[in-house]
Write a structure and sequence with these properties.
208 residues, 5 helices, globular, 6 strands, Alpha-Beta Plaits, six-stranded antiparallel beta sheet
Length: 208
């Protein structure tokens, strides 16, 4: 993984963890994320929280920086879950997935997948087109690449909050993806999986 590369990371929680998409957890996690979104060689640029998993779009300067950054992020996420829900013990499932994004097309697709992930799950559950609103359980408020006007605020959007994510520095995440076209907030990302090689890493230690 040469240089600073955009990476799409998915972290899943165990079945006995309460649903993460609630106002209490979302707001607590924002505060937690703001403390670890930037570290040497690692930046969390965007995220979305679903009931049993979270997606992160990060920039990492090589495998070591990615591993160390995810170790910190995953540990903080686990502690936040236990604190908010008054529980103890493991939080994260044994494995996480990450996919390096190397082209403007791949990065543009990853941005839509993360920021509009709630629309994907809405369509899968309810079999109808979801409403066009800003997902408050994501970093969509800080995204400046919406096509036309940004989506109206949805639940937990909290427009007056401080920014909890890092500004992208790679060419792909700051400028390159725009060559493919801005992201329409009415899009529904496909659920057929991301292209590219998916790597798995053991995160049992990260949940400690």
């Amino acid at each position: 993984m040469p240089g600073h590369c955009p990476v799409l990371v998915t972290v899943r929680v165990l079945d006995d963890v309460p649903p993460l998409r609630c106002g209490r957890f979302v707001r607590a996690f924002r505060e937690t994320l703001s403390k670890c979104a930037q570290r040497l060689g690692f930046r969390v640029v965007h995220y979305s929280i679903q009931d049993d998993h979270a997606h992160f779009l990060v920039e990492a300067q090589g495998k070591v920086c990615l591993a160390n950054g995810m170790k910190s992020l995953a540990a903080r996420l686990a502690r936040c879950v236990n604190r908010v829900f008054g529980r103890v013990g493991r939080v994260l499932a044994d494995r996480f997935h990450h996919v390096v994004k190397r082209t403007p097309t791949e990065v543009r697709r990853a941005l839509a997948y993360v920021l509009l992930n709630a629309r994907k799950h809405f369509r899968q559950r309810r079999r109808r087109v979801p409403p066009v609103v800003l997902d408050g359980a994501s970093s969509g408020l800080w995204f400046d690449g919406w096509k036309g006007r940004g989506p109206p605020p949805g639940r937990y959007a909290d427009a007056g909050r401080a920014c909890e994510v890092a500004t992208p520095r790679t060419w792909l995440l700051s400028k390159g993806w725009r060559r493919i076209g801005l992201v329409d907030p009415a899009e529904v990302p496909g659920g057929a999986g991301e292209r590219g090689r998916i790597r798995r890493a053991d995160v049992s230690a990260l949940a400690a």
